[in-house]
Fold this protein.
Amino acid sequence: MKRVDLTPKEAPRRDVTGPRVAVLGSGSWGTTFGKVLADGGADVMMWARRAEQAHEIREGKRNTQYLPGINLPRGLSATHHLAEALDGATQVYIAISSQALRQNLKAVRPLIGTSDVPVVSLMKGVEKKTGLRMSQVLEQELHCDPDRIAVASGPNLALEIARQHPTAAVISSSSQETAEAVARLARNRYFRTFVNTDVIGTEFGGVLKNLIAVAIGIVDGVGYGENTKASIITRGLVEMTDFAVAQGARPETLQGLAGLGDLIATCQSPLSRNNTAGRLLGQGYSFTEVVKQMDQTAEGLASVAPVLQLAKAAGVQMPIVEQVKMVLDGTMNPRDIAPHLTTDDDEPTEERTQNGSGSSGSAFRRALQRAFDQFRHGGRGAAGDRS
């Protein structure tokens, strides 16, 4: 029997009483977050680019390409009609590749541009041509008040969350009201959300940890051990904090879920996309070969160049990211990567563990100790595919 794709007017009504939300993007993270929302009681309509994928999610409650073995909840459905996905949505979540976001938003704008519904970015990247964060691209293309925009970030490996392993995330918006409205909906018994108003720090935490994860993957692929990785993670957090603060972020945000938490989760997971991309580079594959082997986008690869441009403009040194770029460009042998050893000169320098400071609070030290205990003893047991 020939399958007929339902148009928005023909779509059957579903027996779900929660608030209607839309999730645009049906990859691993978009589908997982749709599950989070549905498990929290929302009526979720996902938009999938391909009709056959929408049909599998809608009828089979599966997304075998991106979340194999995961049963999706009754409150989650899908369509490949954008207007149907957005019809009646009280919140809109977007999980599209950062480099394709602007073009996709051109079709979204006439459907929600004049409404006041919150728009939530699930993306962790910066636009390559402009260096803009995803919330800035949303604001530009949707012509909407930034107080309507929120971002979600944290140690969120998709497959672990889809398997309902307990975790947490932070929802950030310039509007406390918007952040809280999103956080109330995006939570359930296994997924807890916190809030802040530091959008810059929250977004850049999610972007920058991808770059450090690529570096960790490279040294892992080369065969270096835990000392090298621990050194790069520690110095990487300093680079992340220096950069984010220079852009206007609060340093404490980088010590939270969107910074340190996400950094550890991404660096310790061998199934993280950015970690995997780095590992392939460390094994000698070229950038082109790595891209061909990846079935999903590793946002860190596209973010290296624009982040370094922003760092240069702000006068921030990022030796780890610089060496990642050299490996990507093929101008450095992966075995020579040692960004944590680089200094301005041969004179001993003070170790900075916080932005602009040679000493840090005990809470920060305890957070690092807990993170590295987890990394050393539980890293290889972690599983996930979103970073």
Notes: The mean pLDDT is 86. The CA atoms of residues 53 and 347 lie 58 Å apart.
